[in-house]
Amino acid sequence: MHILVTNDDGPPSNQTLQSAGHIVSVILPHQQRSWISKAHFASQVVKPTYFRPGTLHQDDGTTHAKPRRLRSSHNSNPSSSSSQGKSQDGDEDEEWVLVNSTPATAAQLGLFHFFQDRGPVDLVVSGPNYGRNTTSLFSLSSGTIGGAMEAAVCRTRAIALSYAFFSRDHDPQIIAGASRMSLKLIEHLMARWDEGVDLYSVNVPLVQGVEAKKVMYTYALQNYWKSGSSFTEVDAADEEEDPEEMEMEIREREEAGGRQGGGGEEEGEGGKRRTRHKHRHFKWTPHFADVYHSVETSEPGNDGWAVKEGLVSVTPLKSNFMHVQGLQGELKL
């Protein structure tokens, strides 16, 4: 099976898929693009670079402006791993494509502009994302789901894969177990794909013994922000934080402060003058406690509940905004 892998917040570990005999092609945003949903940068020219991954769990890969030059292979089968060719020094080295854009754009480019020598893509896997993508509040903004959704609207089967962590101590053994569970689940879904499904959103909890946990079909819990603004005012002189570190910190907190401001005054020529708006900067600090509370008070069967219980959640989705039943026909004013 030819699997195209993308992600929204960093390089994946695709050794598990490769070890199972699958052909794995990787195309990613060149920087973190969490919370960007299915966006494209409409006016931007997308420019790829090329990443050669290093040792697993080590930050020793290298990025290059141009793709590696390959020596022709004698194998004529385009789906064979040996047909990828060899570098000038004779080594068969993996090379990923990085793009200055979004997971959705990466999925499009991977499907139609790269990896053509490897044959048609059978499945797009967006992830694994380190952080749950459960409930409507997370899912609607998820770049991981956005990448899979883009593949789905291109009529390619897709799975958004997320790892739900409960601490920042990412034990490699637990991650390895989650990867094996994910592989087993991906192969199962592909072999029994429901024709009514465009994509699946899969959430695997990072817990001990996850391979023995139940796997549940779920629905996305409908929830809403209830605590006001998702932004906090900050001093305009404050330096920006690393977005990945910021998201990790926010996910750990159950609550984050937020306040709404009104008008203000600014210093102008001739002294103070009234202004309609007070000049300030804003920092994204959503109240994730709203999400957690909605899960705690929900009935069993939804995606948030499943992850809370340490179960693997599989949510079948259509690539659309579902119509509210009962409202149809002419609307008379």
Summarize the model shown:
This protein has 333 residues and is an alpha/beta fold. It contains 8 helices and 16 strands. Residues 78-91 and 254-266 have low confidence and may be disordered.
If you had to describe this structure to a student in words, what would you say it looks like?
- 23% of the residues lie in helices and 23% in strands.
- With 333 residues, the chain is an alpha/beta fold.
- Helix 5 (172-191) links the parallel strand 9 and strand 10.
- The protein is globular.
- The model is unreliable at 78-91 and 254-266 (pLDDT under 50).
Query: Quick one: biggest sheet?
Result: 10 strands, mixed
- Rg: 22 Å
Q: Which class of secondary structure composition applies to the elements?
A: alpha/beta
Average pLDDT rating: 85
- Taken from the alpha-carbon principal axes, the silhouette is globular
Residue share in β-strands = 15-25%
For the biggest β-sheet, the strand order reads: 4-3-7-2-1-8-9-10-16-11
**What oligomeric state do the depicted chains represent?**
single chain
* Number of helical stretches of at least 4 residues: 8
- In total, the number of strands is 16
End-to-end C-alpha gap: 54 Å
Report the helical percentage: 10-25%
Order of helices and strands: EHEEEEEEHEHHEHEEEHEEEHHE
